[in-house]
Amino acid sequence: MKRVPKRTTVDMSTKLGRLEFSSPVFTASGCAAAGKELDQFIDITTIGAVVTKSVMLNPRSGRATPRMAETPSGMLNGIGLQGPGIDDFIQNDLSWLSQKGAKTIVSIAGNNVEEFGKVADKLRDIPGVVAIEVNISCPNVENRGQVFACDPYAAADVINNVRRNVSASIPLFAKLSPDVTDITEIAKSVVKAGADGLSVINTLLGMVIDTDTLLPKLSGKTGGLSGPAIRPVAVRCVYQIRKALPNIPIIGMGGIRNGRDAIEFFAAGANAISVGTTVFNDPEACVRIHDETAEILQEKGIRSLSEIISAAHREDL
Amino acid sequence: MPIVHKGTVVDVKKVGSYFVLTATAADIPKDFKPGNFVAVAIGDERSSLILRRAFSIYQVNDRGVYGGTVDIVVSPHGPGTDYIANLKRNDPINLVGPLGKPFSLPKEPVPCVLVGGGYGAAPLFTLAEALTARGCRVDFILGASTQEKLFGMLEARRISTTLSVTTDDGTSGVMGRVTDVLPDVIKKSGAAVVYACGPMQMLKAVSEVATLHGIVSQTSVEESMACGIGVCMTCVMPIIGEDGVTRMLRSCVDGPAFRGDKVRWDEVGTIPADTWGAPEIGGH
Fold first, then answer.
1. Are strands B18-24 and B67-74 parallel, antiparallel or unpaired?
2. Which end of chain A is less packed: N or C, by CB atoms within 10 Å?
3. Distance from A54 to chain B by nearest Cα, in Å?
4. Is B48 in the same domain as B69?
């Protein structure tokens, strides 16, 4: 039996701008492929949305193994955006998701500004795609010195280019990196360039060294750190951005493992959350975290999720 | 369909250098086919080790006193496997399974050689039963670095026509590698298929011997995995497809058993230049 959210008296629906979702829990890009595998464990049409693994213009092999190292309460990954390329992705993965009736947020990536635009252009009028997440912050790209999301101008360039290549009605979410001095500066820059919302945060750049070989464990040397270890960093980033941009829709993510973790993100200002690394531990996590969140709200006598969003910003205490 | 099962440990037995753990597994045994694996969580929902560990299913029982159970073989060599080896009867254990593609079985009742390296032999016993049920002759080769790292000698003897044993240090059987005896076993049994599970270097060597003798090999690989269910893209290997194109395939869902002659053994841990989607320069 595939797990589905339990019925509850708490209104768990949420909004990201004009978009409405029956659940605030989404998958996280890169941790759910394109939904098919997880649909063996949960009914993916009953979670808020499936955020697909970042897709690029052409097929991409990704990096050599080892691609992963376990870390305290987390993991380091350097997959290198392995994927089928946008055409194959639309034909196979998106058509499956749309046939299922899943709400889909497509994550896109590019080696350069133009590639982002080309990938986005292919997504015009594809059924089931409710928004595009623009992955300007993957640490596992060829030129590691140039993560777009680490520079306000480069980040804005990408968003600007994507905006010009998609229909005006499709919301764009820019996925931000925490590896910056002031994340609100990047946030403001991409919003000005046309982002309708923000996905906060991507992985942190990290390294693990094998103490036998004395070499980095990952073939790409550095990788992205994820999991509960990064959660306080993510909550801080959501909080800072919410404070700087009171009305921008935010999808919060970074080490969410249970309902209590989710509530931290909502209170910090997230309108929805993505569950990533935890899915590797628990394939049912998206539904479980939805249920746990609803249960906690119910215990507190809170009738609607919307009541706690941004609650940490109260000035009355 | 794989399930997430919150089970309990029924028994943990020390066998040589290894531990055989039996856990309740609900319906996992009903869907099980030889070659499937389970992914075991380390600790509870607050554990700081969040990645599951994958284990070949060694035995299943779908109608025991405890309902369905599975057996796995654990070789403690790190914090995760140490944790599992130290579990006690009635401890909770969280399993996801059955996972992975099962071994392909021959359509005709042809002779088969099964080669197990250390605890890698674990999935070969249910395979041997399935082959025997189809009328296949089964010959076993078990190898390890030393005697106490051999696994399943008695069982292998019981279900095979012949059993050959090799150890690197000569403490049991022939001193040497499994591939020192494999050509002879293939010739004497008239084998059409070799199945192997064990360390990567052994699988490569077995695959080469099989190819040299013009027969098919099925090799079950043990790549490092983060999820076991096909979503993380960690456990990829360069595999040649039916169309002749090499792709980075996930050993958790496209394997763990691959045809030996389709694996680019010497290039595991690299992206061969002609791989589908390989970078033109530099890397990904």
1. antiparallel
2. C
3. 12
4. yes
Q: Which residues of B41-73 are buried (b: 16+ CB within 10 A; e: fewer)?
A: bbbeeeeebbbbbbbbbbbbbbeeeeebbbbbb
Q: Read off the pLDDT of residues B42-97 as tens digits, 9 standing for 90 and up.
A: 999 999 999 999 999 999 998 888 899 999 999 999 999 999 999 999 999 999 99
| CA distances in angstroms from B9 to B15, B60, B83, listed in the order given | 17, 14, 13
Give A192 to chain B, closest Cα distance, Å: 30
Select which of A138, A150, A237, A286 is catalytic. A138
Which residues on A lie below 8 Å from B268 (Cβ)? 65
Do B197 and B231 sit in the same domain of this protein?
no
- Active-site residue A286, yes or no? no
**Is B234 close to A72, i.e. CB distance below 8 A?**
no
The pLDDT, as a whole number, for residue A145 is 54
Contact between chains at B233 and A67 (C-beta distance less than 8 A): yes
The boundaries of the domain holding residue B165 are: 103-222
A94-108 pLDDT per residue, tens: 999 999 999 999 999
Question: What chain A residue is nearest to B248 in terms of C-alpha separation?
Answer: A61
Closest CA to B130 of B201, B259, B32: B32
Residue that is last in its domain, among B222, B243, B268? B222
Q: What per-residue confidence (pLDDT) applies to A138?
A: 82
Q: From CA A45, how far away is CA B71, in angstroms rounded?
A: 35
- Bridge partner residues of B239 (DSSP): B247, B263
Choosing among A1, A2, A58, A67, which should be mutated to test the B contact, i.e. which has the most B CBs within 10 A?
A: A67
Number of compact structural domains in chain B: 3
- Per-residue confidence (pLDDT) for residue A167, from 0 to 100: 93
Q: Is B282 touching A (CB cutoff 8 A)?
A: yes
Q: Are residues B121 and B163 in the same domain?
A: yes
pLDDT band at B119 (very low <50, low <70, confident <90, very high): very high
Tens digit of pLDDT for each residue in B197-234?
999 999 999 999 999 999 999 999 988 899 999 999 99
Interchain CB contact of A147 with B (< 8 Å): no
Encode pLDDT of B2-38 as tens digits: 999 999 999 999 999 999 999 999 999 999 999 999 9
Same domain, B145 and B203: yes
Going by C-alpha positions, the residue among B26, B12, B15, B5 that lies closest to residue B89 is B12
- Whether residue A184 lies within 8 A of chain B, CB to CB, comes out as no
Q: Are residues B252 and B215 located together in one domain of the fold?
A: no
Closest Cα in chain A, distance from residue B139 (Å): 34
How far is the alpha carbon of B157 from chain A, nearest alpha carbon, in Å? Answer: 37
From chain B, the residues in CB contact with A276 under 8 A are none
Whether residues B151 and B217 share a domain: the answer is yes
CATH of the domain at B70: 2.40.30.10
Which pTM was predicted?
A: 0.96
Cβ B237 vs Cβ B265: under 8 Å = no
- The SS3 of residue B166 is strand
Task: Assess whether B250 and B272 both reside in one domain.
Answer: yes
The CATH number linked to B127 is: 3.40.50.80
Domains in chain A, CATH or no CATH each: 14-310 (3.20.20.70)
Residue B91 and residue B188 share a domain: no
